[in-house]
Write a structure and sequence with these properties.
The protein is an alpha+beta fold. It is built from 14 helices and 17 strands.
Amino acid sequence: MVRKEDAMGTLRFLTSGESHGRGLVTVVEGLPAGLPVPAERLKRELERRRQGYGRGGRMKIEKDQLTIWGGVWNGKTTGAPCGITIENSEWEAWRSSMDPQSCDPEAVKEKSIYCPRPGHADLPGGLKYGHENMRPVLERASARITASWAAAGALAKLLIESLGIQVRSAVTNIGGVSVKAPSTEEEWEAASNSSMGCVLQSDEERLKERIEEAMKVGDSLGGTFVVSVKGLPPGIGSYVEWDRRLDGKIAGALMAIPGIKGVEIGEGFRLANAPGSQAHDGIFIDEKGMFKRRTNHAGGIEGGMTNGEEVVVRAAMKPIPTLTKPLPSVRMDTMKASFAHRERSDVCAVPSARIVAEAMLSWVIAEAVMEQFGGDTLEEVKERFSSYVNRVRRRGNEKA
């Protein structure tokens, strides 16, 4: 049970819907009143999630028709829960087999799934919830659900951007082909404008060539990407309890994205092989009396809290489990050896996953900010955030 005092100043969102259902529903609670919410900005964030070479045919069909149902009035949040729906343009074609109340038995039979796909939720989900026909598992476990997450993350991004906090991402590897990671503001901007998340046009072409190779042999590819947060002051998060540590929340949110199998903060895995003298970031005072680091091995987080440097998170995505040349499996209705179910799918979704990661990281940061500062209106949140930033800055100036 959540106590009232624990829920004050916090954000949460819930979603409902299936991949081929009527649509997706997102309800976001806890946004302060007065936050401008341009519908076009939300639609643009959803459009970014659908980009990237190697996506399946469904991307040409889906239009992510977004509707705001409540919580926003005259272009600004009211303080009430914000309700958003994303319609499924294929609903009529799937109604007979996916209707919540009454389905056509023959249509259900045609769409039934009895051969679980290795690497997907099919088998454990079917066993957990007692589904011999695993269509209900596939529908909810589908990465299509991340469109709802992107909608919630877009609202969170609007909130933190109003505080001067910026979230951006870039692809760093697909199928073993590594590309340049951004190191300047111009390069981050280039990656943001690239459908493949690349700094260089030449790298974008290299990744497309690798994806084409996988297409020809009926395989799929994974890869890696990096997500960055700029503008956070020191001390966001906490060290006092395990579930309040910001790095833990970030890792959990990114690992929840379908296909993500590894997350590191800063240079996490490299630091495992480095001596301590080369692993940590010395502390200095700059000419303005501010605390400063000359390196950022920690990725902007120490002791479960931001340290004032850029927050850098990297994630690894496995290849998509649905293959045109399916792997061995077992039929759940007969328990006989077979091959995994085939469903329309992508060859590579790494560029899309990095956009979902932006949304989820934005959500975690917004959640941490609202937990720490609270406020029923955007003006209150800004005042409290600004007061805190000035306090931590003054601390360095007082001692300089």
